[in-house]
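User: Can you write out an input/output pair for a complex, sequences first and structure second?

Assistant: Here is one pair. Inputs:
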Amino acid sequence: MEKPLVLVSHAPPDEIRDALAKHIGDEASVRFLPDLSGPERDTALRSARAVITYHPIRDLGIDAIALLDNCQLIQCLTAGIDYLPLSEIPPHIPVAYNAGAYAEPMSEHVVAMALAASKRLTVEHNNMRAGDFNQFLPTKKIRGATCGVLGFGETGREVARLMRDLGMRIEALNRSGTTDEEVDFIGKLDDLDRVMAAADVLVITLALTRNTDRLIRSEHLDRLKPDAVLVNVARGEIVDEDDLYRHLIENPSFTACLEAWWIEPVRHGKFETKHSFLDLPNVIASPHNSAMTDGALVVAAKRGAENVLRMLRGEGARFLAGDDVRML
Amino acid sequence: MEKPLVLVSHAPPDEIRDALAKHIGDEASVRFLPDLSGPERDTALRSARAVITYHPIRDLGIDAIALLDNCQLIQCLTAGIDYLPLSEIPPHIPVAYNAGAYAEPMSEHVVAMALAASKRLTVEHNNMRAGDFNQFLPTKKIRGATCGVLGFGETGREVARLMRDLGMRIEALNRSGTTDEEVDFIGKLDDLDRVMAAADVLVITLALTRNTDRLIRSEHLDRLKPDAVLVNVARGEIVDEDDLYRHLIENPSFTACLEAWWIEPVRHGKFETKHSFLDLPNVIASPHNSAMTDGALVVAAKRGAENVLRMLRGEGARFLAGDDVRML
């Protein structure tokens, strides 16, 4: 029996190409769309059982998507797919996001940001430059403090593991309100107020959906401890931009670690903020690069491939985009 | 039988006063020198079996030290005592340093600095301010990378535990070249070259002694990986100041996280550097505040008290300052 075809919409670097071929190769043929042209290309599109892609609309195009007669899964390689115009994909083709694709590097980045803020690294570096050597001003202790985790998927759970190893208590929220993970509290988004109030460090790893858009507003930020640290590695839109800026201005001992932005290059073609977050002493900013460590793209590709294999084996693909995830 | 007297050379805050009284109280009387005057003071000094102090010369004074007829231990509360003029204390009175007094807060500070540097937090924040949004420039992965630990006492081992939990390999050096701790390599200072070359993150937790003064010079720094991260939470003097500055200038992807300085307020009455470290983009500086978290002074006082109890019980005090530690 001929192996099913898995079509990759783009031409990845060799190490990812090799990883996909090796991971999927025993159970399916892997072809890369840019390698194909003419009738061969059309045939591949018509026969593909699955497509692996960063951006189905941009990388395949509407015309190619129309040819996907046998496609039973479009597997995206990015964890967040809120910015993909999924309404342009025929509703009968399931789309999966790559949950936790970058859980390991992102969780390390979260620890870096949360601890840099807790230990006042950027603030005191600047104070030293200004001539102040504040040796006896206490910094936040991590052991025994509470880490709130909003969104307890792959990335949130990996964050929790690292934070627990550092001695933090974990209070997490997810859709089900249940988890097998070792936590001190697990709840649903209904329990947001409780976790906001308990958190010394509050980490947002939620997917942006219709339910999480502008989830965190002034009324929630006002529940935070005055010296809490907020880390957003998910999507800017989950936190109201105006409310966050005001909270930063009004609470100088509060720190926001912003890795995800409201208007940013990959999703919007540019970086732009409504307020001058980068000039505030209580902001630590990173350019949405938490996923980018050596080898991270290969791990993410393997995770996507694994979900395709689940579908091909009849085990059912995971992380399918439901109606709430389809923002566009 | 009358309880032995433990004399505290200074008037600590109530929480430390209470902690000392509670910790030692069953086995010894605890008196605080500033509470005493006249003959009562002299009698206390003459009868004290142990003295607990931050700085024996400054807090007791030479005249009072001369009265310590029955003292069998001067227990310092700081971990590093290189800056105390121990030659002014009669040689028959053993002096103990407070090893690992601040191991927990310091180890958290080390993780904060090492990860902030590895994830380029300060560099990319500044790049964003300058208009560069470097989303695809890789940062260092922590999992699987190697943490070198120079000095594997209480603080070094606590650093190693946290780094191991984050997935790092541990290569450590101590005096004996042996350890019960879980490590990937343990050696003596003879093995410095090996650890310098292997380290992605190199943490210095050594005591400053005659053997470690200017231990790290150009010949060692040159063995580091180009993008290595050096974290010094011990003493500035362990690293040659000129050599480190030159290495920073010549290796822009190398980062130095400097918490301990060459000339700093507690030891020298001022903060001063020969070179403008604070202006370099590849330096993360903190004002020797890694020990200062809520409650850390109480923990340190209890550790010192515990060593005094060992002496009183005849178990032998630990961490006695040998000839190599007596710098002054």
